[in-house]
C-alpha cells in the first residue's frame, strides 16, 4: 500500500457544501479535459460529481473511450486506476485522489508469488494450467497470467469467485482446491492438484465474505416473498442459497428492472445497496446482512482528496499519478482486453436468450 500525504486544513476542515461547490467549479474550468470516474461503492457525495459511474470493468472501458480527457481522476481503488492507465492513451494522466486506496483482495496476490505458484501447480499437476485472472488484481499479476496458457484452471485472486464460477459451469465443489501461498506447495498434494479442475488462490474480498447462509435464511424468515441476489465474491454456500448472483452491474440491472412492489435482499457493498433502495422507491430493497458492509478502502476517496487533486491539476501539478511501466502494461492490456471481450460475449449471449 502506498502512503498518502496529509492534506492542508483548507480541505480537511471545509464543509461538504463548499467542497462540492469547488469541485463543480473545477469541473467547469477543465471542461472535457477532465473526466471523473467513480465506482458504484463510493459515497453519494462522490458519485453525484462523477462523469461516469460503473464497476471496475465498465470504468476501464470508459477510461479507454475518453481520449479527449487529459486528466482521468479515478475515484476507486488502486488496481482500477492501473487498468484505466493501461487502457488510456500515453498523453493522458490517471490520478487516484488517495494513494492508500488499495484493494485488500488484490493485495493478497503479489506477482512474484503468483508466478512461483503457477510453476509449482504445473509441476504438481503434470500438465498445463490456464491462469484466469479476475479484474481485481494488480497490473503486474494480470501481465504474469496473460503470458501463460494451459488445461486446468488457476483462478486468481478470489477463491469464492473461482468456486462460484466452477459451480455455474456445472462442476461440483470437489472439482476445486484452495492454494495457500503461505504454505509449501500451496498446502496441496500432487494427488489433490491432479484430481482438481479448478485451483483457487485463497484471496477473498472482506466486504463480500461477510455474508453468511444465516443472513439468507434470516431475510427469508422475515419476508416470505423476498428475493435474494448476491455478488459472486460471496462464499459458495451463500450464492447456492440465493435466487440469483451477478456482478455489480448485473445486480443493479436485475433490481431496477424488477416489478414494482417486489422485495429484494442484496448481498453486496452497502453504499450501492442503499443508493439502489433510494432509486427504486417502488420496491423494497435492503442489505442482506444485519450490519453495513462498507469497503473501507474505497471510502478513503472523499471530497477533500478529490478537490485537492483537482486544485493541484489546475495549478499544473499532476499529483497521485498511477502509471504502469510499459513492459507490464503491454501484457496487462492483453489480460484486460480478454476480460472485456468475455464480458461482451456473455452480455450478447444473455440478450439473445432473454
Ligand atoms: S469491495 Fe472488496 S474487492 Fe472491491 S475494492 Fe473493496 S476490498 Fe477490493
What report would you give on this structure?
With 354 residues, the chain is an alpha/beta fold. It folds into three domains: 9-103 and 297-323, Rossmann fold, CATH 3.40.50.10800; 106-206, no CATH class; 211-287, NadA-like (Rossmann fold). 46% of the residues lie in helices and 14% in strands. It contains 16 helices and twelve strands. Helix 2 (16-30) runs parallel beside helix 15 and helix 5 packs across helix 16 (326-353). It is globular, with a radius of gyration of 21 Å. Iron/sulfur cluster is lined by residues 41, 77, 103-105, 136, 205, 207, 269, 295, 297-298.
Task: Please give a quick description of this structure.
The protein is an alpha/beta fold and 354 residues long. Helix content is 46%, strand content 14%. The protein has helices spanning 9-12, 16-30, 44-47, 56-65, 78-87, 111-125, 139-146, 159-168, 190-195, 206-209, 213-222, 236-241, 248-257, 270-279, 303-314, 326-353; strands spanning 34-39, 52-54, 71-75, 93-95, 129-133, 152-156, 176-179, 198-201, 227-230, 244-245, 263-267, 284-287.
What is the secondary structure topology, with strand pairs?
Layout: H1 9-12, H2 16-30, E1 34-39, H3 44-47, E2 52-54, H4 56-65, E3 71-75, H5 78-87, E4 93-95, H6 111-125, E5 129-133, H7 139-146, E6 152-156, H8 159-168, E7 176-179, H9 190-195, E8 198-201, H10 206-209, H11 213-222, E9 227-230, H12 236-241, E10 244-245, H13 248-257, E11 263-267, H14 270-279, E12 284-287, H15 303-314, H16 326-353
Parallel strand pairs: 1-2, 1-3, 3-4, 5-6, 6-8, 7-8, 9-10, 9-11, 11-12
Residues 41, 77, 103-105, 136, 205, 207, 269, 295, 297-298 line the site of iron/sulfur cluster (SF4).
